[in-house]
Amino acid sequence: MQIFLAIIIVPSFAFVGIGSYKSFGDDAGTIAKIDGKPLTQLEFDNAVRNQLETYRQRLGAQFDQKMFDTPEFKQNVLDQLIAQRAIAAEVIHANLSVTDAQLQKAIVDMFGGPANFNMDTYKQVLAQQGLRPVDNDARMRRELALQQLAVAIEGTGFAPRSVAKSLSDIAAQEREVQELLLPVADFVPQVKVTDEMVKAFYDKNAKQFEVPEQARIEYVVFNNDAVLSQVSVTDAEVSDYYTKNTAQFTTPETRRASHILIAVKKGASAADTVAAKAKAEAIVAELRKNPGDFAKVAKAKSEDPGSAEQGGDLGVIEKGLLVAPVENAINKLKQGEISDAVQSEFGFHVLTVTELKPAVVKPLDAVKADVADLLKKQKASKKYSEMAETFTNTVYEQSDSLKPVADKLGLKIETAANVSRNPSPVAGAAPYNNAKFLAALFSNDSLTSKRNTEAVETAPSTLVAGRIVEFKPATKRPLAEVDAQIRQRVTMEEAAKLAAKAGEEKLAAFKKSGDATGFGAAKLVSRSKPEGINGLAMQSIMKADTTKLPAYVGVDVPGMGYGLYRIAKVQQPAQADEAQRKQEAEQIGNIIAQQEMAQYIELLKQKAKVKILKPITTTTVTEVK
């Protein structure tokens, strides 16, 4: 198998050393130095943009950059950069490196191994990210080197057996509990709510009764779809594109091949090489007489154990995966033909093509719709900038109505009611439910003049402009309107206080007497098996001091009443769950390893002599577009 893997290479990989990241920029605009290397303002701003873009994609319409425009957020980004640079510096000082073979294996493994790796697909994936193979090689080499360091540290984290056992015992501990609940409802008849109590609650909780400002709005959306609806493609254009780009519609030829290898060791003598060639040529002669015996001969005579077991099968040959002499020879063979002995750096190969599927060109009719769609998008992309400028200028120059821009660009005027200043979860992904657009919509100028907002980019290639048709300022619901609601709320709160008072009195009495009168049937509970007991109550039960039994705890259970709990017995499960204990020990070990890694990073930062040259609060962050 080793020789088989060895001939599968990735010739376009430009393997670079760790020196490719020994320098992190020049001194221009330096805000910090780590191991004597500058961290520049530009690098910091790029890191902030990347973080913001991550949050924007995660939060969607709810993203508001102002939430992150804080010293704490910027400091967190800086801390991450410093930690990364300190670790990278240690990688260099420790001479940690990644071999070409390790890098090649890591990349091929991303695709599920050599059998699934496709060089063209690999390049396409990188191109979509704006990367070249050489750039990705350097990035992955750096990351693999950092992983070596992290694994070396985190791999030392383990939980001592006694500690893991003690923690598992605590987690698995069982307690025999009886419950006595004093329901809030039982105390409601004792509560008398006065008008003064209602008024006091109303005044104290004024924000609960506010009705936020609301607006009825009109808005128009300009995006690629709006442009697409105004472009067309002729049959002649489709045909011309198809003719000039036939390769795009061609399923390439595929060849499945097998080989027999007569190996020649590196540095072999001329005599050994001649002998190996003669052996390979004898196999060629044998197989040309009986081509059907190829698999049987490969199993018996091939010196590539990985493919010999499969009768020499190399699978479907992808361009660039085999050494050049072998690949070139395979591409010249007809199906079933036996090659001459082909020499490579591994020895001499006898080759055959076991399956050949010729290239197939899809007919124009089969791809016509796709080509038309592609050409429309290309035209729309070119026209978008021109129409976007018209949109922006029209909503500004004719700001008393959205009708001119709608008529000019063929857009639909949309309406929305009960729109407030902040994005609403109810509105979801509605075009107007965007923090930047709402800020423009509820600006002083828009509110007072009821003119169009400026064109606001709410997403890539999406502009929205709107205007307020009707505005209702924030108000407070009158007391009379919420009187019944408040009375009910106050009643329940006062009843809960009475239940808690009665419960605390009973708790004190039980602690003195050790009595179980009034409690329900005993339950055996644990942290993982609460047996219907409220979560807050379970926390108190499992935390209770049980050095003296029976033990009692009282818990105010919101919405239910006051719970009293009598703990009569504490024990371990009859049979320990060894699988669970093993998992818990691993989790404890991971926590310890993470703590050790954090401490190690702090030591590396000290070793790197980190110097902050510019207060982070003075930096400027470019808004994400």
Descriptive overview:
The chain is of the alpha+beta class and 625 residues long. 47% of the residues lie in helices and 18% in strands. The protein has a 4-stranded antiparallel β-sheet, with helices on both faces. Strands 12-5-14-13 form a 4-stranded antiparallel β-sheet. Strand 13 (456-459) and strand 14 (462-472) form a beta hairpin. Helix 3 packs across helix 21 (578-607) and helix 7 packs across helix 21 (578-607). The longest helix is centred in the last third of the chain and has 35 residues, at 479-513. Residues 1-26 and 618-625 have low confidence and may be disordered.
> How much is the radius of gyration in Å?
37 Å
User: What percentage of the residues does DSSP assign to strands (E)?
Assistant: 15-25%
Question: How are the strands of the biggest sheet laid out side by side?
Answer: 16-3-18-17
Structural class by sheet pairing and helices: alpha+beta
Task: Please supply descriptive tags for the structure shown above.
18% strand; Triger factor/SurA peptide-binding fold; disordered N terminus; Chitinase A, domain 3; four-stranded antiparallel beta sheet; 4 domains
Short précis:
The model is unreliable at 1-26 and 618-625 (pLDDT under 50).
Write the layout of secondary structure elements.
Elements: H1 2-6, E1 30-34, E2 37-40, H2 41-59, H3 71-93, H4 100-109, H5 119-128, H6 133-154, H7 161-172, E3 174-183, H8 195-204, E4 210-211, E5 214-223, H9 224-228, H10 235-244, E6 250-251, E7 254-263, H11 270-289, H12 294-301, H13 305-308, E8 313-316, H14 324-332, E9 342-344, E10 347-357, E11 360-361, H15 364-397, H16 403-409, E12 414-419, H17 435-441, H18 444-449, E13 456-459, E14 462-472, E15 475-476, H19 479-513, E16 523-526, H20 535-543, E17 551-557, E18 561-571, H21 578-607, E19 611-612
Antiparallel strand pairs: 1-2, 1-19, 3-16, 3-18, 4-15, 5-12, 5-14, 6-11, 7-8, 7-10, 9-10, 13-14, 17-18
Helix pairs in contact: 2-3, 3-21, 7-21, 8-19, 10-15
